[in-house]
Amino acid sequence: MALASALLEILRRPTIVEVLGELVKFITPLWIAVIVGVFVGWAWRPKWVTVVGRELLDSSTQKESSSSSSSSSPPAPSTCGISISSLSLSSLLPNCIPWAADDRNQNQAPTTNNDCSSSQIEQEESCNVSNEDLRHICQLVEEKDGGPAWIHMMDRSTPTMGYQAWRRDPQTGPPQYRSRTVFEDASPETVRDFFWDDEFRAKWDDMLIHASTLEECPTTGTMLVHWVRKFPFFCSDRDYTIGRRIWESGRSYYCVTKGVPSSAVPRRDKPRRVDLYYSSWCIRAVESKRGDGQLTSCEVLLFHHEDMGIPWEIAKLGVRQGMWGAVKKIEPGLRLYQKERAAKAPLSRCAKMAQINTKVSADYLRSVENSTKDSMEVENSDPAEKPARRNIPKALVVGGAIVLACSLDRGLLTKAVIFGVARRFAKIGRRL
Questions:
Q1: Residue 331 pLDDT greater than 80, yes or no
Q2: Read out DSSP for 48-102?
Q3: Contact in structure between 86 and 371 (CB atoms under 8 Å)
Q4: Alpha-carbon span 289 to 295, nearest angstrom
Q5: How far apart are CA 186 and CA 207, in angstroms?
């Protein structure tokens, strides 16, 4: 009632100029306080939290490594000695996240070695991508991974591209995203090379600052790459060490990329290392929307999640606002890539590696797809809020509103507006 009375008092002003002036007076201090609070909270994050987390994760890594070494299961075939535990999206925790190893190598220069039989790929099992990752992406494609329901977010299109997006919120870990993009008049092979080509990516992906190949295996096509990506002004840039590999079944390509530990690139404060990263595609030919029965279009099913080190609810809001703008930049890049390929432009090293695929049969894919129970049906509304999510604490928002209201001497009207808006911010996690 106090908020309603305050708004009525503003609306009774004789002129519209006075009404707008009063509204600006009340809203401006609130937004200043919110922005200052975000920056202060970001800067004052206690360092002991990071130290304790590193010790716990390092201890967990040692236990997993010892149990993995004692296992008698044979390695996956045709991987140049490459094997890795499955990365489960249901738990959303990486199998190993190195902290101490990178901290001990702050002064070590990055090295590049193209021989998978003698490089660090053999020495660091976690830097590789195995058939377990193929099994996982197959289950994601067929919605048989046992995860929560997908929530429909977006359905957009252009004359030559269609795009749909979904999100789901696991009990632990960051939000997960699934999208389906259909490019008209594009082959799966060209789209596969396009997404793998880091040299060409710089022409259309303005967030990519640096990309380099650290390791590669010419037998399986497995690669270890280093990326640095640009983030908005209030965040530092992000640093990734990514393992990736492609499987082929007919004209379907299962492209797995995920964050893996590597001592080749020392961990630094800036850019900040992203350990939990998963971004994988299924690329295959589909019928054109022209309805002529020809498989002249290409479908890309993308599954993505990462822990960027910011509150997940804020990240969800940013993704929702910027998703379509980022997706629209992909098609012009693809069409330029098609023109260069048609003009017989030389292939980059990454594009050549994209053509080294591990071939698997359709029967094998069906067997791995059915190895777990079906996922829940896709739904169009948000599920109930899960207690494990990383929400903005309500006490923090309300407490900040109290301090702000008490510090401003503008009467009951200002305080009513501040408390009313603060209550809305305290519930932001339930709406996102």
A1: yes
A2: HHHHHHHHHHHHHHHHHHHHHHT--PPPPSSSTT-------TTTT--S---SHHH
A3: no
A4: 10
A5: 24
